[in-house]
Amino acid sequence: MKNKKTVKIVGAIAAGVAAAAVLVLVFFAGWWTRGSVGATPYDWALGIIEQYYYKDIDTDDAGETAVDALVEKYLDIYSAYYTAEEYKQLQESNAGNRSGFGISSTWLPGEGVLVVNALGNSPAFASGLRAGDVMVSGELGGELTRFASLDDFSSFAARAGEGEEVTVNCASGESFTFAKAEYATSYVLFATNDSAWTFTGEDADELTESAGDAISYLPEGAAYVWLSQFYGNAPAQFEAAMAKFNELGCTSLVIDLRSDGGGYVDVMQHIAGCFENCRDGSLAMEARYRDGSKEGYPVYGAGESAVVDADTDIYVLANSGTASASEALIGCLVSYGVLDLGDIYISEYSQSYLDSAGITAEQAGSGRTYGKGIMQTSFYNPATGEALKLTTAQIYWPDGTTIHDVGLSAADGCRTVEAPLPIAGDGQELRSAVGMIFGLS
């Protein structure tokens, strides 16, 4: 990391998001504290399902069973049951508080362990490891472990104690050293052709220059922002990035939502407010419930210094992992003319990747976004500490569109970009997309 400079972000949004623990609606996770004291866990869960699930189901043959079995038998894949401990851990994670290396990964047959994401402000990210790196071996306590499977890496990581340094060796010949630690997540990375910024510090609220992450092939006046999830301090981080965008006088913006699976609704509402055409009072999305009722969610206002002018050229990168709140944000931007469908560039996975993974293009969702246009509400049982995440509504864009079970694709007028691998961040696919967007050879 070079030319390190920090500016701390402060303001009502940062404090407000951190405090919003009582009532938050979500796409992939979140908590709405409703419950009935005195009922058995089964009766509590069954009552909530019958009252709030987004479609009618017949549970007459359910019988008295465990709550997790009830959820598995009758509900969709987005609904889930959490024990008290799982609920506590998930709340901490969604607030941005994590512990470990900060790596999400998958196995790339014949090559090694592919880093899908090195979470911002994590030990792995701070060491220089990035999405797209392929780890082939690791060193711990003087012992070398070669990774012949994802399990090999998982076992290696599990052996490392808190604060104990490990070194991972990559196929590129680079090595990175880091240790498990607690950290607050940076969900945003902002870059131009000569520098970049992410968020560091105990609360991930210090806008920190990271010149090594600059994207040299961006044309002059263009900027790039990667948003990894809609959780924690993401609204304040995104605002600070957009304020930097305006400070630098940038005129075009590439928003990278590849592999961003969504998160909290209110984070999406705040981020939409950074765009002039989606200002206060405008509808960010609409939820439609089983009983036919509707509920609108407004766009929240951003600070004036963080509002992106309506004349700015906006582009979005997406892939099969772009889901839920990400798709809702896209819908809001499209509905208010911030971007056209033709300004959305969707990953089309290379045949070499599909062959190595042993899957088809259809199975990988190649060439389309995920297509999750439903919302979950999570109910907390105060008697036991358990929680039930339940699909409660279908989501519609401000213009009335719903993408549930369909997603966006070239059939809608979006463009496709060949992707060697299903990852976000800098790399061959981003270079190709930038070339297509700006007409570069």
Plain-language structure description:
There is one protein chain. The chain is α+β, with helices and mostly antiparallel strands and 441 residues long. It is built from 12 helices and 22 strands. It has a 9-stranded mixed beta sheet with strand order 1-13-12-11-14-15-18-19-22, with helices on both faces. Strands 4, 5, 6, 7, 8 and 9 form a 6-stranded antiparallel beta sheet that branches. Strands 2, 16, 17, 20 and 21 form a 5-stranded antiparallel beta sheet that branches. Helix 7 runs parallel beside helix 8 (265-272) and helix 8 (265-272) runs parallel beside helix 9 (325-335).
Distance between the termini: 29 Å
What is the number of E strands?
22
What is the number of helical segments per DSSP (H or I, 4+ residues)? Answer: 12
How would you sum up the major sheet?
Answer: 9 strands, mixed
Q: Helicity level, as a percent range?
A: 10-25%
How large, in whole angstroms, is the Cα Rg? 22 Å
Q: What overall geometry do the principal axes of the alpha carbons give?
A: globular
Structural class: alpha+beta
Strand residue content: 25-35%
Strand order of the largest sheet: 1-13-12-11-14-15-18-19-22
Mean pLDDT: 90
Task: Provide the low-confidence segments as ranges.
Answer: 1-38
